[in-house]
Amino acid sequence: MITPRPEARNEHRRWLLELTTLPTAAGREWRIERWVRLWAEARPGLTVEADPGGNLVIAMEPGKDAAKGFSEGPPVFLTAHMDHPAFVVERIVSPTTVELAFRGGVMDDYFEEAKVNIFAAGAKGEHAAAATISERTGEQTPYKRFLAELDAPDDQIALGDVGVWELPEAEIDAEGILHTNACDDLAALVGALAALDELHRARKEGAQVRDTRVLLTRAEEIGFIGAIGACRNKTMPEGSRVIALENSRSFIDSPVGGGPIVRVGDRLSTFSPALTAAVSKRAEAIAGAPMPNASQKLSEAPKWKWQRKLMAGGACEASVFCAYGYEATCVCLPLGNYHNMADLDAVQSGINTGRPRVGREFISLGDFDNMVDLLIACGEDLPAAGGLADRLDTLWGERSGVLDERTG
User: Please, which residues have CB within 8 angstroms of residue 214's CB and are 6 or more apart in sequence?
Assistant: First the structure.
C-alpha cells in the first residue's frame, strides 16, 4: 500500500493550520479556491476546473508524467465542501454599525453579545475588523440577521465581506489534537488533497492507481447547494463512485481519537451499501483485521483505528449524491465543538451554567492521518463490493451440514 512519507505528514499539518483558519462562508469561498488553485499549480500533471456553479474538480491528467495509465474502473471522486458557518456583510448602517447575515446552522443561544472578526479586503490590504453582535434585525429567513457594532470606524468594510467568530489562535496540542476555526469541512478537504497528492506522486513513480479526482463544493452549509448544482450539471460522469468527506459531531460511541468513520448514513438517508462495504473492506485491509465483535476483547482490536457508524446527528452531501443516482458513501472525522458550539450537549439539554460561548472546533491528528491512509487505499484499489456474498458462501460451504441434523 502507498504510505505517506513522514515529511508529507508534516506538510499536511501545515496545510491544516493554513486552510482551517481562512475566512470562508457559503457563496464566499474564494480564499479557499485561491489556496487550492495555487496548491494544484505547484504540482505538474494536476488540473483544476470549475463547473458552472463554481465547484472545483482537481484531477490527474491521463498519462501525464506516469509510466502507467489508470487501472480499470469508473472514476473515484473524493468530495468535500469549501464553506463553514459564518457571517456575510449585507448592509453598512453607519461607520460603526453593519448588518450581518449568518449562513449556516448554529443555535440562537450562541449569538448573544458574541465577538466577531470581519475580514475586509479593501484597498489598504486585507485586515480584520473587530465587532460585537448587538441585536437581531430584519427578516430571519433564509438567514438569521444581526446588527454588529464595530470596535472602531472602518471605511474598508464592503458588502459581501466575511465575518467569523473571534477565537484563539489555531494550535496542535501535546495530545495531537488540532484546535482551529473551521475543521468542518476544511480538514476533510485537506485530507482529500493529501490523498490525491500521494496517489499522484506514486503514479509518477510508476504505480497504477484508480482515476481518482477531488470535487470541492460550495454552499454546503445552507442546504448542499453546490452539491445539488454539481449533480444537475453532471460535473461527475455518470457511474462515478463518490466518497463524500465530512467532519461529523462526535458522540460517546463515535469519539474523537477513535479513528475516521465510515459513515453508513445520516439523518436523511442510508448510503450505497456496496460502496460503503467496499470502503470498509479497504479499512480492514489497512488494519489487518476486522473490528472486534462481542465475542472478542477490545484488546484484540487492530492498532490502526477506524469506526463504522450511522452518524444520524446531521446530514451530508452523500445523501444528495445518492438522491441523484450516484453510488455514494461518506468517510468523516469525529468533530468536537461542532459548528464552533462549545459545551453543546449541555446547552441543548438546558443544563449549562453559563452563557453559551463559541469555541474552536477540534479533531484528532491520528484520525486525520488514518483518513488519508484510507482514501489513498481507496484510490489504489476499490473493489466492487465488500465481499459479504463471498463470506456468506464460505460460511455455507463450511457449516450448511448442520441443517441436515433435523429430527422427527
Answer: 56, 57, 58, 59, 77, 78, 79, 80, 192, 193, 196
